């Protein structure tokens, strides 16, 4: 198979606020249902909405691993909740795999699909 035909798959993700302690919604401006999505390397926040950069910083390192296929017994396959890092906030975010996209390696890598490159 030539480098131009090599493909890989990534999960699309949705990161959603699923729990906010009553009375603390405005600490980090989290509200139930607030979310963003990830498709490939692109992160999208709905128009007119916001998402705390501190909460984003907490969840961001997990997203590339969560996008990839993992073994059923790998913790990444089933642990899906992340706390906002602000100790006064206590909001919970959930990472959900929502679909799968296929990418051509030649389209997304400067190595153009060369092995070892």
Total of domains: 1
- Spans of at least 5 consecutive residues whose pLDDT stays below 50 are none
Report on the biggest sheet.
Answer: 5 strands, antiparallel
What spatial order of strands do you see in the largest sheet? Answer: 3-2-1-5-4
Termini distance? 16 Å
Sheet-strand content, in percent, reads: 25-35%
Shape: elongated
Provide the residue-averaged pLDDT. 87
**Helix tally?**
4
Helix content: 10-25%
Record field, number of beta strands = 5
Helix-strand category: alpha+beta
Can you write the helix and strand succession as a string?
EEEHHHEEH
**Radius of gyration over all CA atoms, rounded:** 17 Å
Record keyword descriptors for this entry.
alpha+beta, 4 helices, 117 residues, elongated, five-stranded antiparallel β-sheet, single chain
Description:
The chain is α+β, with helices and mostly antiparallel strands and 117 residues long. The chain has one domain. Helix content is 17%, strand content 32%. It contains four helices and five strands; from the N terminus they run E-E-E-H-H-H-E-E-H. It has a five-stranded antiparallel beta sheet. A hairpin with a 2-residue loop joins strand 2 (35-39) and strand 3. The model has no long low-confidence stretch (mean pLDDT 87).
């Amino acid at each position: 198979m030539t480098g131009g035909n090599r493909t890989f798959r990534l999960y699309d993700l949705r990161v959603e606020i699923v729990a906010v302690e009553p009375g603390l919604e405005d600490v980090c401006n989290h509200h139930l249902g607030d979310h963003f999505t990830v498709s490939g390397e692109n992160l999208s926040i709905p128009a007119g909405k916001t998402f705390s950069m501190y909460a984003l910083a907490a969840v961001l390192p997990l997203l590339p691993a969560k996008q990839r296929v993992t073994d059923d017994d790998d913790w990444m396959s089933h642990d899906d909740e992340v706390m906002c890092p602000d100790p006064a906030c206590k909001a919970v975010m959930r990472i959900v795999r929502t679909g799968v996209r296929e990418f051509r390696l030649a389209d997304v890598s400067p190595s153009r699909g060369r092995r070892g490159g």
